[in-house]
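Re: the request from the purification team.
They wanted to know what the chain is likely to look like in 3D before they choose a buffer screen. I agreed to run a prediction and write the result into the notebook, where they can find it.
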Amino acid sequence: MATSTKNTAPLRVGLLGLGTVGQGVLRVLAQNGDEIERRLGRRIVVSHIAMRDPSAKRDCDLSGVTICATAAEVVAADVDVIAELIGGMQPAQNLVLDAIARGKPVITANKALIAEHGNEIFAAAQAKNVFVGFEAAVAGGIPIIKAVREGLSANRIDSLAGIINGTSNYILTQMSRRGIAFAEALAEAQKLGYAEADPTFDVEGIDAAHKLNILASLAFGTPLRFSAVATEGISQVLPQDIQLAQELGYRIKSLGIAKHASANGEDTVELRVHPTLVPVDHLLAKTDGALNAIRVHGNAVGQTVFVGKGAGGDATASAVIADLIDAARWLAAPAQAVPYLGFGSSALKEARALAFAEIESAYYLRLKVADEPGVLRAITSILADLDISVEAILQKEPGENEDATLAIITSQIPESRCNRALEKLSELTFVRAGWSRLRVEHFED
């Protein structure tokens, strides 16, 4: 019988980028190196680093590390694993593909790269039989990739939903707690470092769409397809909507939602990111600040919920180092590697992505209407004609010389029908401009 020699030499890591996460990797390895070595059987050391500004002050120990002039130099160096932490598409994509071509395992925290080019990267890695780890690309310190891909692998996963962007969650939390407007909450998030100077990726749902795309492919065994994610941001959510939602028994959260269904021989998926009314007693509604929370529903386990830090240097570094440990184990026994998306490439199945107009949801509608007799009757009549049931209604009496406000929760209907209702309601002379529509999500246990 063949025997193998256990490799106890340090795992040499080439680090591309030394920003918040890269510094976190060095700090966590310094703090927990003995415990990590006890788990793995060998030490992990960062031996080479490429950084944009070597003279910048950093909160980590760089003694014994070779500082390289370019990231390409690190990829070509005598290292065992490459950790790509520079973000963006280029040069990150070329660097990752170069490392794979050299047969070196790659760890990345780059959700945009995986979401938009993961199919190409995984195909290249499979052709070279190379490990690719991307736990840090979704939800920071929450081990959601491993949980969906491995821990829940005995389940048919029907749906997942989550708060997967801490910036949006922080903004909505502040709007809810203090009654402030979006612009003020955003400015505060930027001051505290939760939001970038250009917050578009966060507040318009693009960052969450990248992460949802990855999670959905892991959950449903479908190829990555970022363009299929329907996305709406939170910039149009008003303090008034947050207050009315609370009076109706809901909190407004920006959720990424993915659902899988099979009917009449066709597989379909819903992939959507948008502000959502969530019942106040659900854990997602209670997840505040910059925290992330992800609910996964499997047909065997039912509902499971994962909560934790979605970003931050040390939290995300925890996920990077977990992947480094997996990479070391892969180097020792590559035949035992888990498929990148949890399904072998030949087992991935295409599924038609539903457009927003096809998706069914309950809706929150806020209308500003004239304070006159017959208004409520006319509105409910239009909804009834379109077979839309009213699950709840809240009427706010106007002040002097003001219009009244109606907040309505509908039954679950296709978005196309909701759009027709809003068209008809907008034609009524007593309905003012400036209505609001948000989706409502209820979750089975």
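For the purification team: Residues 357-440 form a domain with the Alpha-Beta Plaits fold (CATH 3.30.70.260).
Please add any questions underneath this entry.
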